[in-house]
Amino acid sequence: MESDPHIGEILLTEEQLSTRIKELGAQLSRDYEGDAPLLVCVLRGAYVFLTDLARATDLPVQIDFIAVSSYGSSTRTSGVVRLVKDLEVDLTDRHVILVEDIVDSGLTLRYLRQLLEDRKPASLEVCALLVREGARSDDVRYVGFPIPPDFVVGYGLDVAQHYRELDSIRVFEPAE
Ligand code: IMP
Ligand code: MG
C-alpha cells in the first residue's frame, strides 16, 4: 500500500478517528438517553463508521441499511441520486439517525432527508463523519470532522470500490 502512488498523505489517523467517534457516541448517548434510536447506514461508504459509532454509544440502538448511488466509479458526482436498496424497518414514530460517511455537495443528503421524512419518523437527525468545508452543513447535527476539498479514501470511503479497508483517511492522488 505504501508503494501505491494514488495514496497520498494521511488526513486523519486511526487514533484521531477513534477519539472523535467516542466523543460522538457519548454525545448521542446523552441526546438519546431513554430512547432506542435507529441508525440508518448509508451504504456503502458509512459501513465502517457505523460499526464504530454504534459501539461508541451505550444506547440500545437498532440498525438498518440504505443504498444510493450518485458517483458511479468516478470522483465527481453525476448530479442524480438513485435509490439502490431501501430500508426494511418501518420509520413511523422512530427516532432516526442517518449515518453518512461524507457530505460533499449535499445532494445525497437532501435526497435521503426528503425520502425518510416522508415516512413520518418521530425525529430525523444526520451524523456525518466528514463534511467538506463549504458544503451546506446546517442540517448536519453531528459532524465528525470538517475536511478540505481533496478527495479522500479509507475507513470505508472508496474510489471505484478501492481502499475501503485502509485504517486511516488518506488523500487520493489521481493520475497526472
Ligand atoms: P454529495 O451528494 O455530493 O454530498 O456526495 C456524498 C457522497 O459522495 C458520499 O456519501 C460519498 O459516498 C461520496 N463522496 C464524496 N466525496 C468523497 C470523497 O472524498 N471520497 C469518497 N467518497 C466521496
Ligand atoms: Mg456515500
How would you characterize this protein structure?
β5 (95-103), α3 and β6 form a beta-alpha-beta unit. The protein starts with 6 loop residues before the first strand and ends with a strand. The model has no long low-confidence stretch (mean pLDDT 94). The protein is built from three helices and nine strands. It has a six-stranded mixed sheet, with helices on both faces. It has 176 residues and is α/β, with parallel strands linked by helices. It has helices at 14-31, 47-56, 107-117, and strands at residues 7-12, 38-43, 62-69, 82-85, 95-103, 123-132, 142-147, 152-153, 169-172. Magnesium ion is lined by residues 42, 45, 101. Magnesium ion binds at residues 42, 45, 101.
Main sheet, how many strands, which sense, barrel?
Answer: 6 strands, mixed
Helix coverage percent: 10-25%
What order do the strands of the largest sheet run in, or round the barrel if closed?
4-3-2-5-6-7
Instruction: List the uncertain runs.
Output: none
H/E element order: EHEHEEEHEEEE
Classification by helices and strands:
alpha/beta
Bound ligand species: inosinic acid, magnesium ion
Number of helical elements: 3
Globular, elongated, flat, extended or rod-shaped: what is the shape? globular
Separation of the first and last Cα atoms? 19 Å
Radius of gyration using CA atoms only = 16 Å
Strand content: 25-35%
Number of strands: 9
How confident overall, as mean pLDDT? 94
